Every structure is written in structure tokens, then in C-alpha cells.
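Our collaborator T.R. sent over the components below with a one-line note: 'Predict the complex.' Nothing else. No constraints on interfaces, no templates requested, no preferences about which chain binds where. So this is a plain run: every listed entity goes in together, and whatever single assembly comes back becomes the starting point for the next discussion.
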Amino acid sequence: MRTYVPTPEWIVLDWHHACIAAELLCIQRCTGCGRWRHPPRRFCPACQSDQAAFEPVTGSGSVLSFAVSHRSLDPGWQAHAPYATLLVELDEGPRLLAATTTPPGEIRIGQRLAVRTEALSENFVLVWADPASHDEPTSMAPRARGNPHD
Amino acid sequence: MGTDLWGTTAIVGVGETDYVRGSDRHVCDLILDAAMEAITDAGLKPADINGIIPPPGYMSTEEIAAHLGVPDVAYHVSVLMGGASPTASLQTAAMAIAGGLADNVLVCMGWNGYSALRPKPDARPTKRVMNLGPMGETVRNHYAPYGLMSAAQHYSLYLRRYVETFGIPEDAAAAVAIACRNHAQLNSKALMRGAPLSRADYDAAPFIAEPLRKFDCCVETDCATAVVVTSLERARDLVHPAVVYLGGAEGHPEPADEIANRANLLELGIHRAAPRAFARAGVSPHDIDVLEIYDCFTYVVLLQLEALGYAEPGGAPAFVANGNIELGGRFPLNTHGGLLSQGHCWGLNHVVEATRQLRGTADAQVTDAELALVTGYGDLGDGSVAILGRDR
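Returned assembly:
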């Protein structure tokens, strides 16, 4: 099943490389004022510094919103329709999209999430998020419901 | 500059092709047909045109000028705001005219919105594509890998939030879809003329990307449209009653190049454009007689009505209820059928319809229409507004 995996460039590629090297979700942080930001930007919107580093985050966040797709132009995703895509607000502040193994009907705005990454190539990590659980705080298995990249 | 700009230019020519699914014509032929029709409608010749705003992609100014026989292009610019481009182009055309850079400006749009993905077996092939602008990078890098390829999917990220925050009922979205479809029954060129939509049809249709059902989504179409803008002074010597460009504006959310990190997911470009446009035109929302609102998706219409001041946040459902937006209601909306039911020409078809309404020549004519408002929306939430009025 063909599923789209991009080949990022420039500072987006730097972000993916940082996540792959750390085997954790990393987010860009301003060296000047400490502000977290995403997606990667050249200058800090708060202090205009161009000094920044990709640092690991706690991997905790919550559902700000989510899309439930009943159709997809991508055959790999279409095979799993309907599927949810989460808009995650990390506890550090920045927001990003995440794939999820959780069925759409079990997702609620405000739900607490644990985030992890999966390297799909040497240049791209996919972010996964599923409801936080006391039993399994870090290792959510993305294949519980089917991974479009399988 | 402000006092020399607003109300000093006018739309004097309009052109549009048929709105079809599966055209036998090359996309360039569609664009050039609409452009030549607009120039002819104005009573002008190609040699009178000296400013061109081309579509976002497909054809360059240079090609358009050469094929039409425009000998001397004094000004051109490309406006890349997705579906907000054509309506935003009007302010750029007006600036060029008021500033003395051009006399008669051609704004054109056209595409093979249906056939690009589904060419007829005998169709003449094309490699020409739209210019996605900043949206392309974000979708490629950040959305598509998560299974979000289409506009319906991207916008559902904040439409879900809109629906849940305010408890927006499906009744409201259905009212928009059905009003547009009803108006399309009266429009001679509407793709969906002859295909009325009932509430039962709406309810029975499957979801595409929640909360968007099939009939919440506009129709992919092969089509082209064009308008000619000139000074109000020149316009008064031409064939049609001048349709005055009273005021307009563009606006962009922050950040504009992606959705997720906006402080308020529901604050779009039009929230910034709308107050600027009303102030420039010197009118208020309740002065308007006809609304031509960019309707890629029904819920996006609701959000824009709130941004324009027709309802408080979350209040659009009451505004679109009880026939208020139908022909004969207080605020007839998308009297040509809109992108939802006439066809998707990036909203330049809304400008064409507003012009006809103010000339008094629309297929679904609003009695004594004097002021029309057009919006554009696209490129992950950019917005544009144009307020047009009959010459008095």
C-alpha cells in the first residue's frame, strides 16, 4: 500500500534529523529567550534571535482539535478510513499534527495525550499521539489499529 | 492616497465560460475565452488593456497578453492567496489605476478543476498547474504525511473546533447548501441547475471530513471567468452602468502559512480584512443588499458571516435560518449558486455575479440591488473582501 512520505528540506529537515537522533520528539527552542516554537522558524517571533536548538519535550499534551477523514486521496490512508488526525497542543506550548491509533469516536477535545515518534526514513519522523495511560506512559503501540505505513 | 483610491474605479466588463465537469477545451482556451468576453463586454479592444492580473498558475501574463493581442502591458502582478486571490486582485487593480500605472486592468481566473484529476480519454493533455503558493510547502511537509491532502481535511481541523465551541447545528450548514442550490436552479450557467437539493438529500450524504458532508463541499469544475477594471471616469463612457469598487481589503491569519499554531484557530484573514473594507467603503454590514460569500465549504460561509459582523461568534445559524439568505430574503447569498452549486472559479464568479446584480442583469436578480459584498477565502485562511456599488 503506497503512503506518502515527504522528503523535507532546510530547517524542517533539521527538525526531523534532531528527532531521529534523539529518538524522541524534539521541538525548536530559542537560545536567546527560551521560547518553544513550531514549525521550525529562522527567527524567534518574540526576541528575533536566530540562535535556536531542537530540544526533547516531555511528550505530554492535549487534543486541541481533530480531523476525521472519511476519504483520502492517499491509498495507504484510505484503507484505514475513517481515521482521525489530531491537532495536539504540547504542554510546552507549540502545536503539531499527530497520527493516532485511537478510533475517531473515542477522541475528545481536551483529552490528555502521550506523544511518540516513528522514523519512516532517514529524513522523516511521523508523530503519533494517543490518550495518556498510567499503565503505558511512553510506549504506545501504533499498530494496535493498523498503521497506514505498513 | 486613500481618498483617491476608494470609489474611483469600476468593473466595466465581465466574462465567464460554462461551468462543466469534463471540458473538451484546454485550460488556456477557457482562460482566454473568458478574458476576451470580458474585454468585449466592456466595449473595449485588447489594445485598450494595459494591466493584467493572471490566474494563480496555469498561464502567465506574458502569454495572456500575446494570445489576446495586448500590445503594451504597463503593469502586472500575481496575487497568490488561493481562493482569496481574485477578490484581493480588485484592490491591486484599483491601486494600479488610481496610481496612474495602468488604465484598464484585466483580472482573470480559470482552471481545469475537475478534469485535472479526471481527464476525458480524448482530452488534450496539459502539464499546467495551479500555483499553490505558501500552502504547498505546509501541506507537503506537515499535513499530507498525516493523511490530510485535501482542503476539506485541512479546514476540518478548525471547523471541528468551531462546531464544538458554539454547538453549530447541521441545520445551519444545510441552509447554506440548500440556498446555493436553490439559486443555481435560476442560473443559466450553473453546473447544478436541474439538480435540486432537499434536506433529506443533504442528511443522507456521507461525510467527507467531519463536520463536512458531501453537500457541504463545493463542486470541482472546469471553468474560467474574467473582469475588466477601469477608472470610474472612463467607466461612465462605456456601455454598461458602472459598478463602482467602493472599498476592499485583504487579511491573513497569524501565522498565515499554517493552521495549528494560531492563537485562536477561528480567527481568519477575513476577521482582519472585514473592518478595513467596511471603513474604506464607508458602509456598514446592514447597508448591503447582496452577499456573494466564498463558499468552498458551508461552514466556512458561517464563519465569514460572523467575521463580517452579520452575527456574533457562533451566531451565524440564526442569520442563515428562515429564508434570510434566500432570494427574497433580507440578505440573499450566492445568487448564482456559488462555488457550492454554480461552480468553482476561485470566487471570481462571485465578482461576476455581484457585477451583474448591480447592473440589474442577473439571472436571479435581487430587486433594486445597490450594494454587494464579495469575499474570497483560501490558502489556509487568507481572506479578502470587496464592496461594490451601483453608480449614483
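Summary for T.R.: Residues 33 and 47 of chain A are 7 Å apart (CA to CA).
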